[in-house]
């Protein structure tokens, strides 16, 4: 039976690259995006790819997405929590409303999706959860402490999934890249293009993580485009 993967934020950037890679390697997909109608071309809905309205700020969106995915595909074998934001909240600037939104989108939303998908991932026997964290979830380099706190929390969430899901065959990985060549980092780095990680390369890593056996699980995968003395 074909395996089914759910990917949030799959309309562009890293999420779109992951969706294309998995579709090309035989996965059925249920994509969670804010505007399903915008998915066209190779990501347009089909018999093996369904698009579902998913807004990370909507507390009920996770349960609806999971229910629709089960109705469409009958099972869930993998979940990729990719949707995220990176507004600036420093110790000396930024406000509570922005910090709340950071945690709502980057931490609480994937928590809700995992909770809703957990029974189906257990039923799979080889359930996989990949949370897009960041190197900012492993060290503090810049001044965006709000983002850094949220990504540290995503790493903790991943380890909680590993702890709870391990006896049921669920394996989880925190994928922690540095700067990736997407719209999210526009204006946030002066690194040359050659030092930016390509979304397609992260997609290759996700495919590997999803297909490793239960006996070869990777808890955290740190990905650099440049050398860092702290890592």
Topology of this protein?
Layout: E1 4-8, H1 13-24, E2 28-33, E3 49-53, H2 61-73, E4 78-81, H3 96-124, E5 128-132, H4 145-165, E6 171-177, H5 199-211, E7 220-223
Parallel strand pairs: 1-2, 1-4, 2-3, 4-5, 5-6, 6-7
Helix pairs in contact: 1-5, 2-3, 3-4
Description:
The protein has helices at 13-24, 61-73, 96-124, 145-165, 199-211, and strands spanning 4-8, 28-33, 49-53, 78-81, 128-132, 171-177, 220-223. It has 231 residues and is of the alpha/beta class. The chain has a seven-stranded parallel sheet with strand order 3-2-1-4-5-6-7, with helices on both faces. β5 (128-132), α4 (145-165) and β6 form a beta-alpha-beta unit. It starts with a strand and ends in an 8-residue tail after the last strand. The model has no long low-confidence stretch (mean pLDDT 96).
Summed up:
This protein is an alpha/beta fold and 231 residues long. 38% of the residues lie in helices and 16% in strands.
Summarize the helix and strand pattern as letters. Answer: EHEEHEHEHEHE
Strand order of the largest sheet: 3-2-1-4-5-6-7
Share of β-strand residues: 15-25%
- Give a short account of the largest sheet: 7 strands, parallel
Principal-axis shape: globular
Regions with pLDDT < 50 over 5+ consecutive residues?
Answer: none
Compute the CA-based radius of gyration.
17 Å
Count of helical stretches: 5
Mean pLDDT: 96
Distance, first to last CA: 40 Å
Topology, number of strands: 7
- Give the proportion of residues in helices: 25-40%
The structure class reads alpha/beta
């Amino acid at each position: 039976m074909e395996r089914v993967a759910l990917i949030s934020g799959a309309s562009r950037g890293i999420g779109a690259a992951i969706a294309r890679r998995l579709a090309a390697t035989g996965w059925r997909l249920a994509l969670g995006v804010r505007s399903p109608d915008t998915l066209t071309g190779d990501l347009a809905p089909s018999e093996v790819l369904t698009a579902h309205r998913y807004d990370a700020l909507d507390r009920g969106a996770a349960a609806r997405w999971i229910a629709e995915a089960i109705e469409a595909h009958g099972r869930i074998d993998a979940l990729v929590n990719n949707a995220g934001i990176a507004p600036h909240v420093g110790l000396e600037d930024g406000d509570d409303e922005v910090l709340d939104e950071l945690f709502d989108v980057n931490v609480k939303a994937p928590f809700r999706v995992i909770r809703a998908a957990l029974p189906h991932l257990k039923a799979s026997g080889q359930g996989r959860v990949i949370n897009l964290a960041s190197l900012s979830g492993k060290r503090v380099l810049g001044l965006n402490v709000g983002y850094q706190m949220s990504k540290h929390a995503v790493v903790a969430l991943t380890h909680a999934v590993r702890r709870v899901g391990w006896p049921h065959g669920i394996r989880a990985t925190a994928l922690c890249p540095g700067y990736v060549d997407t719209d999210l980092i526009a204006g946030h780095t002066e690194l040359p293009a050659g030092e930016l990680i390509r979304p397609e390369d992260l997609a290759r890593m996700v495919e590997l993580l999803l297909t490793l056996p239960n006996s070869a699980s990777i808890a955290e995968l740190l990905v650099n485009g440049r050398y860092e003395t702290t890592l």
